[in-house]
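Attaching the record inline, Q. Sequence:
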Amino acid sequence: MSKAAAPPIELASADPSIAQEMARWLSHLGAERRLAPKTLEAYGRDLRQCLDFLCAHWGERVTLARFAALEATDIRAFMAMRRADDIAGRSLMRALAGLRSFGRFLEREGKGKVGALSAIRAPKVAKTLPKPLPMASAKRLADADERAGEDRETWILARDAAVMALLYGSGLRISEALGLKRREVPRPGEGDVLIVTGKGNKTRMVPVLQNVLALVQEYVAMCPYPLPAEGPIFLGARGGPLSPRIIQLAMERLRGALGLPDSATPHALRHSFATHLLSRGGDLRAIQELLGHSSLSTTQIYTGIDSERLLEVYASTHPRR
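Structure, as predicted:
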């Protein structure tokens, strides 16, 4: 494995050897595994919390040798402490996954085998189905006139409508939409696909509707700031990159105006895109490609939402009916 230098990390609860390996592990995950920055941040935070707990639990700073000699009871005690803080099962599962990843890294580096981590069962996480929006409501969210009464500049309303139209019209993650450069979005009539950079820095091609491109172009024409070809197409009120939080706040305002539940978030538009395609007879593998899911099992969660439609298709098309 590469011995490239990694940014130093300071740990009050562990000795420098652990800090050094932690830095190299996170660098490896980012450079070679291409994990998203937020995932790296969460993994690092989880490991720090574990080391802080072990330091207090053992009454001494954690060394590599002591960490490699972890016992299952130590990990269970850490997980119990986190659960007592009302941490959700999904976060606990991520924490355990991060600790296991660090343990495997140490083993590959010849720094010891943390066998106790593989003996711990991952916490159970209740499967929650996405909550799609009704088609009519999803379309209204991309209508700037729905917010005409707000004390906000017209170009900002047009911008928010264009972003939401992309989330629903092409099934984009909010980070993917806000990461688009101007040159990557064709003008109406000059193209019908987007090249999107998704999780793990992977690119995929997704179709885009002409009426969605028209909304984007309407925003571009109104935007008071320069929009160079290599720069982000969506800008904030002061001309910098647009924050996802701004779109989330816009969605909150629209929820009230349209009488939608709290589950109506920007990400719900992506769920709605997949669900509505499926309800119209869309192929699950094609939807997987459009969403950028690496595994079909991730996409299959949408089948639980529209099981009635699937049964209808089965009953009408199976050759032995």
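The CA atoms of residues 236 and 246 lie 8 Å apart. The longest helix spans residues 37-58.

More tomorrow.
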